[in-house]
Each structure stands twice: as C-alpha cells, then as structure tokens.
Amino acid sequence: MLKSFEAAQDIILTNVGPSSPVMLPLSESAGKVLAQDIVAPCDLPRWDNSAMDGYAVRADDCKAGAVLQVTGFIQAGGQAEPAVEPGCAVKIMTGAPVPAGADAIVPVEETEEQEDQVRIVGKVKSRDHLRFRGEDISAGEVVIPAGKILRPAEISLLATIGMANVAVYRPVRVAVLSTGDELVESLDELAPGKIIDSNTPALAAAVSATGAEPVKLGFAGDTIESLREKLVQGLQFDALVTSAGVSAGDLDLVREVLNELGVQQLFWKLAIKPGRPTAFGLYQGKPVFSLPGNPVSSLLIFDQFVRPALLRMMGHQEVLKPFFTATLAEPLSKKPGRTFFIRVRLYTEKGQLYAVSAGDQNTGILKTLIDANAVAILPTQKGNLAAGEEIQVYLLDER
C-alpha cells in the first residue's frame, strides 16, 4: 500500500534533527537560528535616562508659568550631574542619565528658554518622559530563547547587551544532483533528444531559499558507473537531493545505486499527485531525497518534504508552511485515492478568499507554477470538488 502524504512527512521529520551549533560573529548571524538561551548580563536600560530632549526638573517646582534656574547640561554619554536643586532645572538630551533630585523631564517644546532660565509652559507630572533602569529587561532574564530566528530586532538586542559572537545552528550543505542521459548544460550542447538541465539550478535555488548552502554536482548519466561516482560525492554532504531516475523504468537506477552505497530506504512511492515515485532514505543519519525528474513535480515535492527537513536541520521549530482556508471559485476534477497538489491563484472579493486553477495542471506545464501564488492540497479521500467548497491552501513564495 502506498504511503500517504501525511505519513511521508512524519517519517522525514522524525528522522532529521538540528545540526551542530557553531559560534558566529553577530554580523554573520542574521537569519540563523539561536542554539542557546541568551541571558541578560545587565539591566536595560542600565540607568534611569531621559526619553526626550528637554529639562530635568522636580515636578513640584513646575506649576504652569514657573521659571526655573538652569544650573547645568547633560548630554547623551555624559555624567548624571549636577543634581537638580529646588527651583532649578538641568538641560538634558535624549538618553542622558537622569541627575539626582529630578523626577520628571519637560520636553524642550513645552518650555521657553530665557538666557540662564527656563519657563515651564505645559503641565508636568512626576515620572514624565523618564526611562527607568531595568524597565525593558532585568539582569538574569532570558531575553531570547534558543530556537528563535535572529531577525534585526534580535540582532539589535544582542548588540545592546554586548554579544560579539553567538551560538547558532549552522547552515547545512546540500548536494543537488540531476540524472539522465538526455541532460546538457547549455544551448551550445543542445541536440535532438537532449534537454537543458533545469532541475539543478531550480533545486539549488530552493535550497538557498531555506538558508542552506547548495552544492551543485551537475548531472549523472543513466548508468550504474556514472550514478555511483556522483552519488558517492553527494553522500559526503549533510543532505542529498536527486531528481529523476527513481521511477520503475529500465534506466531508473538511482534507488539501486543508493542501496548499494548503504542508503537505508524509508519509503518509495506515495499516494500523491504529482510526485508518486518520490523516495526518502538515510545514509549515516543524513537525509537522502530522491525526487521525480519533472521540474514541476520536483519543486512541489521539495516544498513539502525537503524544505521542512532542511529547516529542521538548521534549528527551526516551525518548519511546515501554514495552511489557509479558501473557497473554490470553480469546480476541480479529482479522483479519490491520492492527495493532489493543485497550483492555484488566490484572490479576495468582499472579504472572502477564493481560489481558482492557475492553468493547465499537467506537470509538464511550468508556466502554471509560475502563474500560481498558492498550492491547494486536496485530501486523498476527496473526489471531484464543486465551486463553493472550502479547500486548504498554502502560499508559494512572494512573487
């Protein structure tokens, strides 16, 4: 019995785990996944400071129209002195430490400067425009937990607490191999019966989009010797992705050679369309994905099986694309017995999300994948679907 789409995903994600952590300079860590909890070594802010350019004052001295003597000036990076005495004010810049005696900041826009004095125009309350020590973060607090993706906000915080290097899960290196005697690299080599290899650049781009590093092995011919040479190379990396040569034809030799090289096959052939001949195995704990040769099929299968595995290997916790509910704007044909991946276009009308076919669903039609902005996953047990039925969809990359 063919394995289901859900069972195949579960097998893959059960058998892959995070790569080993590495220390990277903070400047190189963006987009990586944190491998350890970050504990704040100090309070943030480190001291009470001004949230505005203005005057540090005693709120009780600041009745409307009050005139205060200006006794000092504190700039950002300066010292919190002199202290504010009764009837006085100290001019202060944003971020500067608050001097002793002050319990409020009056923004410069709410004052009138008069030589060495300042007149208070607006109302002043205690604690106005003050940022207090530790109000953002307290020393000893876990500020970024392990598993968090380091975005600009996280990078900013790490820099603020003085972290020059950070432990992250390393980007995995993924070998990409296309197979088939019909493949050539360029138009210059094109001859009758030959096609240009598009799977290698496409799958390498898909690998790069996950944050992993693709290693393009080129392509292998349909012989045991050619496949063995390339597959031996590919098995040295963190993961291997092959395309074509995995069905049941006379020249579909990829599984045979992988088995000879010690790859433990965990499944082959799935109850899905497209992508039925997909295979997955392990080599010394490393994942090996054998995808169909059709470019549309290989990219759709990559999205559902390879992408989540690579993300899991790089420490990501949310690895599956979220699903949304959309309403079919037109009927779709489907036979029960397999999960279908249908390329669709989503649009909204009167607040409702609708889906329509993006075009010819034949897997030889790449343009339909280009025109689509989402993929509908139609369950195994479903048959034909009528307009108005609800379906589950996930978004393709922004385009």
Structure description:
- 18% of the residues lie in helices and 31% in strands.
- With 399 residues, it is α/β, with parallel strands linked by helices.
- The protein has four domains: 5-18 and 171-313, 3-Layer(aba) Sandwich (Molybdenum Cofactor Biosythetic Enzyme, Chain A), CATH 3.40.980.10; 22-44 and 144-169, Molybdopterin biosynthesis moea protein, domain 2, CATH 3.90.105.10; 49-131, Molybdopterin biosynthesis moeA protein, domain 3 (Beta Complex), CATH 2.170.190; 324-395, Beta Barrel (Beta-clip).
- It is elongated.
- It starts with a helix and ends with a strand.
- The mean pLDDT is 94.
How would you summarize this macromolecular structure in one to three sentences?
The chain is α/β, with parallel strands linked by helices and about 400 residues long. It has helices at about 5-15, 150-160, 200-210, 225-235, 255-260, 295-315, 365-370; strands at about 20-25, 40, 50, 55, 65-75, 90, 105, 110-115, 115-120, 130, 140-145, 165-170, 175-180, 185, 195, 215-220, 240-245, 265-270, 270-275, 280-285, 285-290, 325-330, 340-350, 350-355, 375-380, 390-395.
